[in-house]
Every structure is written in C-alpha cells, then in structure tokens.
Amino acid sequence: MDPQLYRSKEIQDMIEEEDDHHGRPVTQEKITHSGLFGRYGCDTNLELFNSTLQAMASINPTPNFIIYTGDSVGHSMPMDQWIQSHTIFAKMVQSLLPNIPFIPSIGNNDVFPDYNVTCSDSKLQFLSQVWSPWIPQDQVSSFLQMGAMAVTPIDGLTVITINTILYSVNQDRDPLTDTDPCGQFAWLEDQLDIAQSINNSVYIIGHIYPGLDPFYQLEQWYEPYILTFYQTLSNYNSIIKAGFFGHIHRDQIRAPAYDQPATNPQPPSTVNPYMPIFVGSAISPVYDNNPSFKVFSADDYLNIQTFDTYYTDIYFSNLLNHTNWTLEYNFNNVYDVQSTIIDGQVLNELAQYFNLNRFGFAVYDYFSTSSYDADAVSNICLVGNPTQSTYLECLDAFDDVDLLMTKLRMARRMPKSSINR
After folding, report:
1. Mean pLDDT throughout 45-73?
2. d(C-alpha 131, C-alpha 134), whole Å
3. pLDDT in tens, 223-249
4. 285 touches 314 (CB < 8 A)
5. Within a 10 A sphere around the Cβ of 225, how many other Cβ atoms?
C-alpha cells in the first residue's frame, strides 16, 4: 500500500526506473497522473485500500476469520514510508474490520529492503510490534525467530502461517547446506503433529507459494526447499485442507502432488494425493490486474466447498468517482464443479479439463487478472508441477504448438531468474 493518496512524481519515477528482476520496468507506460483510486501500474493508495476494507465489511460482515497473504507495503519505498505504510495498514484493518480474527503472513515487501529477512532480525521484531493484535502470545517466540505462527481461529482448525521469504530464490543462501532456514521446517512438522493429535484440520498460508511463477515458469523457492515442503506435508495430507498464497498478483490454482518424483518415485498416493492451493490476486493493480478478494465457504470438516471472488474495475472506478465491488465469479458455477468439496483432486481434474477445453482455460486466464486482461500463458502444466523438471516433463507429454513455443521461450532464458512481486 502507498501511504499517499496520490502517488508523488518522485515515487512514480522510481517505479518506472526500477527493474523488477524480469529485466523490465515495473510499469512500461509513462505515468502522468493518478486517478482517485490509483491506476494500473501503481500500488494501492489509501482510497482504494479503504474502499476494499469497506467492501469486505459490507459483503461479509461476520466472517469467522480473515487470511492475509502478505505485502502490505508498496514497492520501492524508502524506509520512512515503509514504516508509515505498515502502521497505517494495521490501524485501518483494526478500525474497519474490528473483532475479526486476522491472520497475516509476511510478504517480500513487508521486510526492508525487499526480501531481506533472516532469523531473529530487527524486521521480525518490528513486525511483531505492528502486528501484535494478530499474534497470539504463545506464538510470539516463533514469530520473532522465523516469522511463523500457528493459530486456532475457530474450533477444529489450525491455521499455520509460514515465512516463505526464507525459501525465496532472492535469498542469498545455499539450500544444500542451509537445509532448514531458521528451523522452520522442523517447526512446521511440530505444528502438524500437534494439529493431528487433537484432530484439527489445517490450512497453510504464506506469501510465495512453492512452485513456478506464471510469467517465466521459473521456481520461486529454491528447489530443495520445494521438495522438503511437500515431503513434510505428505505425512499429514489427511488433515491439510488447503493452502493459501499470493505474491504473483494473479488469481490462480495449483494442485501439486505431495509425493514429488524427486523424493518419492512411486505414483502419488490414492488418498488425498494433491495439495489444493489457492493463489489470490491482489488489491494492488501494479501488475496490470484489477483489485480483488475472495470469500470462502467450508463444511463442518473445514473442507473448502466453494468461493466467491469480488473485484472492482480501476478504470471505471476512476471514471465514475466511486468503486463498484462486484461478484466476478463463483468458482463452482463458472467451472461447473459438481463435487461437494474443492480438494486437490478436484483442482487436478480441473487442470485436465482446461487441457481439453481451451475455452474453459481462456475463462480461467481472464479471471487470473481479475477481469483486466488475459496473460495468455497457454498451458496447464503449472497447476500440478512445482519444479522446472516436472514442468518440462509435463510439457513433453503434450503435442501442442503453444506448449512447444513455451519450451522454446524457456530454452532462451538464463538458468536462474526470479520474480519480484
């Protein structure tokens, strides 16, 4: 979030000039002004953020809890504005969404400088103070150590929020020697053990999901960490109901197998073989997307049953001088999902449907940007393949010109890159 109502020319210039790790500016058009609710290519301003919180309170006044997948601070901010933005964010959430359990996770822009976080450092200390209303007292020590916590917002559910920045390819670490940064994987397994022992269901939330980005099909975590994550979760797939992540400013799904070929060459288990991952878009329209948020419904066993996505169009909001938060789609209706729950198997089957029905995939791709413009990444291999090796194997299984072009584009790239969202 940008703490200024209208973005200053200095910040605009800084964003235009900064490389976003893709070798291109964050925005490629000259910013000459900003509308009341911001504009595409800019981060969220106060008017848009205020409108979003009010829309959430109006559409669903009494949710059981709110999951927030990180990045409450805009891109490329100097430290004084970074601190100010964090403070404003926390105050506005507490003011407009009072008495609702709010469960945050750390985004790469939530630390300063970007992606710069280590074990027990000053950034975690700062966030523990700003986010203190949302961190249970018995979770303060784990948050201060690694930026993770486990909370029980309702009976029967454990929500585990992990610090995914520790695993990012933008971190300067060797995953072969530093196999468990800050001891978070061991901590995660302990939390899963506890949840299992008391028969709790589990949601796992974080900022950067363990898989490939949709823009360049490159790993967002170091691959050893991706494999360790799914291997750790594979012993608890009966209680893990969903994962919720963000980072890419795109509304997408993932359904990777818990048993990855590199760690378990056997076929995936027949019981809950795939992890259902929901990747939220963003409020910020900085990466050519409209703002959006989701309202999930779950059954008595905390299985996700469906969700509604709401959005507002930035262009028309500025034109009309007011936002118009609208139901964009209901997941079950738009994709004709007949299952009573949305688990990893359902998401995996939906990906196969997309391969057979390109119109269905075109709809999915359009909603990916919250009805702004389709990315036209014409393949479905991203849904189930979190590493480049399995992704390429998936491409090999298809005889399709679009997928061939994707492989040719990948062959021209550097072996390692990253995405800065």
Report:
1. 96
2. 6
3. 999 999 999 999 999 999 999 999 999
4. yes
5. 26
| E strand or H helix that includes residue 205 | strand 201-205
The CATH number fitting domain 58-411, selected from 3.60.21, 2.60.40, 2.30.30, 1.25.40 = 3.60.21
Helix (H, G, I), strand (E, B) or coil at 141: helix
Q: Give the residue extent of every domain in the chain.
A: 58-411
CB 295 within 8 A of CB 60: yes
**CA-CA-CA-CA torsion for 376, 381, 385, 390, nearest 10 degrees?**
-120
pTM for this prediction:
0.86
CA dihedral 157, 142, 80, 312 (to 10 degrees): -20
Could you give the dihedral angle defined by the CA atoms of residues 71, 246, 225 and 271, in that order, rounded to the nearest 10 degrees? 150
pLDDT at 14 over 50: no
Helix or strand holding residue 102 (H, E): strand 102-104
Judged by DSSP in three states, 150 sits in strand
**Residues 168 and 418: beta-carbon distance below 8 Å:** yes
Confidence of residue 402 (pLDDT cuts 50, 70, 90): low
